[in-house]
Specification:
By secondary structure, the protein is an alpha/beta fold. 33% of the residues lie in helices and 14% in strands. The chain contains seven helices and eight strands. The chain has a six-stranded parallel sheet, sandwiched between helices. A two-stranded antiparallel sheet has the order 3-4. Strand 7 (163-167), helix 6 (170-179) and strand 8 form a beta-alpha-beta unit. The chain starts with a strand and ends with a helix.
Length: 223
């Protein structure tokens, strides 16, 4: 299993594709994990419920949706960050795959190299890598932080094939469009409760069904 943690200060550099087991002469599809391949909010919600908190779906955010039961003000952001870090250190291996994601990526793997690019703490590296492997997902994995455009540009520059990128967050999609404009970008929001709250952009097709998304990616890297 190929896994590399990329520190925030190395945002414009990237591992060599061959070191991740990926070929340079095939199309490259870069995919996010949380709310794209995995049901993050569902898993995180269960994790904090065991610690006496609840997750409410009031806005497209994380820390501002964490509450103590019965309270009207969301949890202090610093406390939310502590729960977030604890989840990635011990609980992120329990996510359910997003419906259809495993099947769609299995089909895409015949046409392209698949790279998982996840903004997650370094403490998540082993659990996240094991999760990918356990669910039969392509498991070349990079952990990063911050906008994903610079590192995506460094990765896509290494391949002669067409490239695509999938994320749930518009800032990451916009960043990739800016730094790697030849890369096809797609938005996917896995959790049904988040979909009505998630911002959209005309720059990036929003496809929340993985079967349809897989077909759109295949067309983008084949045309």
């Amino acid at each position: 299993m190929a896994e590399r943690a990329v520190p925030p200060t190395a945002a414009v550099s990237a591992p060599i594709l061959e070191s991740l087991g990926l070929a340079r002469d095939r199309p490259l599809v870069i995919v996010d994990v949380d709310e794209v391949l995995g049901l993050f909010m569902k898993g995180f919600g269960a994790f904090i419920a065991q610690r006496g908190y609840e997750l409410r779906f009031e806005r497209f955010a994380l820390f501002q949706n964490i509450y103590r039961p019965g309270e009207s003000e969301h949890l202090d952001l610093a406390e939310g960050r502590e729960l977030f870090n604890a989840f990635f250190a011990s609980g992120c291996g329990d996510l359910e795959p997003a419906p259809g994601a495993v099947e769609a990526l299995s089909r895409l793997k015949a046409k392209a190299e698949i790279l998982i690019l996840s903004n997650a703490p370094a403490s998540a590296e082993r659990l996240r890598g094991d999760w990918l492997k356990r669910h039969g997902l392509p498991h070349a994995l990079i952990l990063s932080s911050g906008p994903k455009g610079p590192i995506t540009a460094a990765l896509t520059a290494q391949t002669s094939g067409k490239t695509a990128f999938v994320d749930d967050l518009i800032p990451n999609l916009d960043s990739v469009a800016e730094h790697s404009p030849q890369t096809a970008t797609f938005q996917h929001v896995a959790d049904l409760r988040l979909r009505p709250l998630a911002p959209r952009s005309d720059r990036h097709p929003r496809i929340d069904d993985w079967a349809e998304l897989g077909e759109a990616i295949a067309a983008a890297i084949s045309s």
